[in-house]
Design goal:
- 33% of the residues lie in helices and 17% in strands.
- The chain has helices spanning 25-30, 68-80, 90-94, 96-99, 115-123, 182-186, 195-203, 221-231, 247-256, 270-281, 299-311, 329-336, 362-376, 382-400, and strands at residues 2-7, 38-43, 57-61, 84-88, 105-108, 130-132, 157-158, 161-162, 165-167, 170-171, 191-192, 209-212, 237-240, 258-264, 285-292, 316-321, 413-414, 417-418.
- Strand 15 (285-292), helix 11 (299-311) and strand 16 form a beta-alpha-beta unit.
- The strands form five sheets. A six-stranded parallel beta sheet has the order 2-1-3-4-5-6.
- By secondary structure, the chain is an alpha/beta fold.
- The radius of gyration is 22 Å and the shape is globular.
- The chain is built from 14 helices and 18 strands.
């Protein structure tokens, strides 16, 4: 059978540097399909979707709330043409009730060990409207290597530089942060993959640079240290979310190739300042993730926080406004309090205010969000700071003999499109 797998496009945030990374969810899903399924994959963020391409069944994988309306439109068109459509992925789970209206079936949960049943139902004309496995996670040892062969590599390349591959060593999270839906999606359970499975997956990735997309690696110190020890021989360079604040762990992470981490900066304490310094002491860069507009923040608090960021030597900063995504505590609270005024899911991009903050107007929070970006990057642009981090990783790769020069044949291409060079001739 021919299955058309689609990752819908979404509108990127205005004024920010855009890099299209190869999406992880679709290729993880693809790995759970039986071998008789012939998969054709389209990531709409880097190539156009051809509705006339021959297929038997359409699968739409959605990760972000800003993808759902486009996903629904795609499904509506395929169904108008007589094709059946099944949805899956994180934002399908967050927006399931609305998505059902545009689907022949929605799959909720993790798909390992489940897809044979779904395809048998489809083949026999009894596809169920809902397959709900959200509270029945498969054994974590069943998670195998993703189907990265489905990527069109040249489309994830910027001026000859290949984008990082995405990779996960665990699922779930034992924390339940206020703005986060992970505990709803997978329960408050940390589920590390067996190390031999992690190594099998790593060994299948040719790319020398990775983004480890786990919610946090700082959940089980012994497993985390074993993971880093096993990664050392691969000599890959990688990005991740938080690493355990322990010198032994940080040292192993550096040896394993930690390039830079996303670290939440939530206050102006000495602890945060020292936390960033400890990363830097081990040669690990830091991209601060800063959430603006939570209830305990005043306008002065936000301004002080932005000033603090300029003092602590962050390599990069990413600012987001508090966004009440469905199935989070924030959404439940704000909905009950009547504070959400915008339910257009295209606007749930963490850069647009959709609720009434507690200590300022929505308009003022939007202004402070813009002020944060402008202030942090006023002396050195986001592109310049990124280039500095990129230079650091190139130097490290040269030192350990793993550097791969950029593909000169793609030097005039960016994510499949021609690069427009503004060269002025006097």
């Amino acid at each position: 059978m021919k299955l058309k797998l689609i990752y819908p496009k979404w509108k990127k945030l205005k004024g920010q540097t855009t890099f299209n990374l190869p999406p992880h969810g679709p290729v993880v899903f693809a790995a759970t399909l039986p071998p008789y399924v012939d998969i054709s994959f389209t990531d709409e963020n880097v190539e156009a979707l051809d509705f006339n391409e021959e297929c038997d069944l359409v699968a739409i994988s959605m990760m972000l709330s800003t993808q759902v309306k486009r996903g629904w439109a795609i499904a509506d068109e395929y169904r108008r043409r007589g094709k059946q459509v099944i949805f899956g992925g994180i934002s399908t789970m967050l927006h399931a009730e609305e998505t059902i209206e545009h689907a022949d079936a929605v799959f909720l949960g993790e798909s390992e060990g489940r897809m044979e049943e779904v395809l048998n139902d489809w083949r026999n004309g009894r596809l169920k409207k809902v397959y709900n496995y959200m509270t029945q996670q498969p054994p974590i040892g069943d998670v195998g290597p993703a189907r990265r062969d489905l990527y069109k590599r040249e489309l994830y390349n910027h001026k000859g530089v290949q984008m990082v591959d995405l990779f996960h060593a665990s699922r779930g999270c034992r924390f339940s942060c206020y703005p986060c839906a992970v505990s709803y999606l997978g329960g408050r359970i940390f589920r590390p993959r067996p190390i031999d499975k992690v190594i099998e997956d790593l060994a299948s990735i040719e790319n020398n640079r990775l983004f480890i997309v786990d919610n946090s690696l700082a959940q089980n110190k012994e497993w985390e240290m074993e993971l880093f020890r096993e990664m050392i021989p691969f000599k890959k360079k990688w990005i991740s979310h938080t690493i355990e604040d322990d010198p032994k762990v940080l040292d192993l992470a550096a040896q394993a190739g930690a390039w830079y981490v996303y670290q939440a900066v939530y206050d102006t304490s000495d602890y945060i300042k020292e936390r960033v310094k400890r990363y830097h002491d081990h040669g690990i860069g830091v991209e601060g993730t800063i959430l603006l507009g939570i209830d305990n923040q005043s306008e002065d608090d936000i301004k002080r926080l932005i000033d603090f960021l300029l003092e602590i030597d962050l390599d990069l900063a990413e600012f987001t406004v508090m966004t009440p995504f469905p199935h989070t505590k924030g959404y439940d609270d704000y909905l009950r309090q009547g504070r959400i005024f915008d339910f257009d899911w295209d606007h749930y991009n963490a850069g647009q205010v959709v609720f009434h903050p507690k200590q300022m107007s929505a308009e003022r929070l939007q202004e402070l969000y813009e002020y944060a970006w402008d202030t942090f990057y006023q002396d050195e642009s986001q592109e310049q700071k990124m280039f500095r981090l990129f230079t650091q990783v190139v130097m490290r790769e040269m030192e350990d003999g793993t550097f791969r020069p950029r593909n000169r044949e793609l030097a005039n291409k960016s994510f499949g499109k021609d690069v427009v060079r503004n060269i002025k001739v006097s």
